[in-house]
Amino acid sequence: MTQAAQAVPETATLAAEPSGSRRRRGRTGYLLMLPATLWLLLFFVVPFYSLVATSLFDASGSDFRGYEMTYAWGNYVDVVEAYWQPFLRSLWYAALATGICLVLGYVLAYAIAFKAGRWKWLLLVLVIAPFFTSFLVRTLSWQLILSDEGFVVDALQFLRVLGPDDRLLATPVAVVAGLAYNFLPFMVLPLFASLDKIDPRLVEASSDLYAHPFVGFWKVTWPLSLPGVVSGTLLTFIPAAGDYINAEFLGSTNQRVIGNVIQGQFIDANNSPVAAALSVLLMVLIVAMVLVYVRRAGTEELL
Amino acid sequence: MPPSADTAATGAPAPAAPGPGSGAHDGPDGGLRLSSLTKRYANGFTAVHDLDLDVPRGSFIALLGPSGCGKTTTLRMVAGLEVPTSGRITLAGQDITDRRAHQRPVNTVFQNYALFPHLDIYENVAFGLRRRKVRDVESKVRAMLELVELDSQARKRPAQLSGGQQQRVALARALINEPEVLLLDEPLGALDLKLRRSMQIEIKRIQVEVGLTFMHVTHDQEEAMTMADTVAVMNGGVIEQLGAPAELYENPRSTFVANFLGQSNLIEGRVLSRSADVTTLDMHGITVSVPTARTHTDGEGGWIGIRPEKVLIGEEGADLDAPGNTVPGGVVSDVSFVGVSTQYLVRMPWGQELQVFSQNTGRTRMFTVGEKVELSWRPEYAFCLDINQDAAAGVDDGETR
User: Fold this and answer.
1) Is residue A228 one of the residues assigned to a domain?
2) Region Disordered: which residues (chain A) (predicted)?
3) Of B106, B110, B177, the CB nearest to A205
């Protein structure tokens, strides 16, 4: 469903493609748009329609008995009442993970872009390297790292940061850490792309114009890296808000996020209308938040 | 010559100027002084070697040389963007060697301008004032934008301006801070020839108007000579020669300067006698004389140098108005007519081709290839250089533009 949310601006760019003044060129343009249009129709519009339709089915039906289309808008009210907590938790965890990723990712991307010299490309490969293993395997290995007998817990207990009976696994800390770890590359890469484009002479110019290095960073480097910050936070926040693997493997029932609920409703409870209503709600919520965020960041002015 | 003292005095008193009393101890005018400045990079390359330079306050100096001669490194050390390996930098009586870039009363006009793309023209120009928390930003920026004739563009972004306009913004952004020294790092390199000419005059006008010290780095000899009061010709990390443009051109002390600034004919000669006024040399069997003041070698031999436009060309046996050094037996091997002058290559009996530029005054006819001619020049225009120097030094560097 997160892919669907990203596909929306794609249609907009396609439609905005400049059309030639001559008719033949115009027709070629439409022909070239055809594959993408078909793709969107087949894999976005149709599924989205089906999803919205399902969310309006009578919730008392079941996958076996079939559903009745009753325009049950009440489904939405019901799911908000029942599941507002995992909803908020999803957004809260995703926001925390995005914040952590931004801090860690910015430092890393900055170092790679400006300080790594000839190690630049090797470091970038290392950033992408985790993608060579599957998402599940990586999350499962975090179970080992954060396990009660693992070295992280041992070390923290030794330092009295954790009490003797405290644990990391099955806590919000573990879920957020897992999210931050899994989505860090999505933050680092756009940040690197933005930072790497910054002419180092601009930073020199700022210090030549009496700006202390910190001020120079704040007035020159940071604003010029904003496009990377915006795309990095979006690429991290959107999938993190919909993710349920980290909560599933690293959390407990107390850390259930909306993804877990949707999965449970759809697969275990066989309650498709509720799952669909939750999905639509999550999608609408994220699109709305992204729109507000992009509008407020005002990055189009930087281009 | 530097601008008159009163220009420098009335030109707005720099707020960045250090406190009272300073400047009195070091140097009469508190200009910029570089003492045994050296920059050696980690890879062992010495960009600047033991450089000494005094730039009086209010003067316009150009560091001229081919790429890699150390001129930009010198400028960057003054700006504080590069840390010298050894040596000191003194400005307005204060040692600024250990100060960081943002603490120095120095501003730079960068090559390719380095304007902040996310700020409009107004904010670009105001940047330095805002960092120093200067009051009255509004009126100062307005006045500066008027000076560079960009007041109507204040709210545009740098990318919306033409190259020449961006150049003026870069100048305004540096000038507004009234620095002790304004550094210009090849500021006109990105402009086309016509615009470059008008900007050269423009910058020179502004320098006289504001009375600040300007240090200009360029590899364009014409630019250096038009704009600067003093030119320092740099090569291989050292200053080869320092002086007023005319002095450097007329009396070069090394083959590099002779070739890099304009063109020179360098002919091998052997010293016959030296007196207080005149040095006499044997030049492939012809006796020629060079003023001793323009003889820059103590050795047996020397390169006799003469600028192509100082050489007169005439028919064999013609009576040329150049008593002294007459060189017969030349054959014209190439003629190119460029309008204001005709440029000849003349093959001499000893095999060397000499360049001759003949002004198109209409008084002499044009010679054709293969014609026998006689060359001549007034002895006072000739100079004599160390024979151990490479006669081709600086030739290619000077030509490329």
Assistant:
1) yes
2) 1-23
3) B110
Q: What is the ipTM of this complex?
A: 0.80
The residue of chain A with its CA nearest to that of B106 is A208
Cα separation, A102 vs A232, in Å, equals: 8
**A13 has a pLDDT exceeding 70:** no
Helices A222-242 and A272-297 cross at an angle (nearest 10°) of 180
Across the interface, whether the CB atoms of A211 and B102 are under 8 A apart is answered yes
Nearest Cα to B228, choosing from B242, B241, B214?
B214
| Structure confidence by residue, pLDDT tens digits, B266-324 | 999 999 999 989 999 999 989 899 999 999 988 888 999 999 999 988 888 776 665 66
Q: What is the DSSP string of B80-122?
A: TSS--SEEEEEETTEE-TTS-GGGSSEEEEBTTB---TTS-HH
CATH number at residue A270: 1.10.3720.10
Whether B373 and B349 have beta carbons less than 8 Å apart is answered as: no
* Count of structural domains, chain A: 1
Indicate whether A142 belongs to any domain.
yes
B363 interfacial to chain A (CB closer than 8 Å)? no
Instruction: Kindly report the nearest CA distance between residue B80 and chain A, in angstroms.
Output: 8
Residues of B in contact with A208 (CB under 8 A): 79-81, 101-102, 106-108, 110, 174
Q: What's the full length of chain A, in residues?
A: 303
Q: Which residue has tokens 């960092």?
A: B131
Q: What order do you get walking across the sheet with B94-95 strand by strand?
A: B46-55, B32-40, B86-91, B94-95
- Chain B nearest-CA distance from A208, in A, is 5
Residues 208-227 of A with CB under 8 A from B: 208-213, 215-216, 219-220, 223-224
Per-residue pLDDT reduced to its tens digit, B202-228: 889 889 888 899 999 999 988 999 999
Give the residue on B whose Cα is nearest the Cα of A300.
B118
Q: Which domains does chain B have, with CATH numbers?
A: 5-250 (3.40.50.300), 257-399 (2.40.50.140)
Q: Which uninterrupted H or E stretch holds B374?
A: strand B372-377
Of B92, B63, B88, the closest CA to residue B215 belongs to B63
A43/A24 Cα distance (integer angstroms)? 29
Whether residues B116 and A211 touch (CB distance < 8 A) is answered with no
Quick check: B102 and A224 CB within 8 A? no
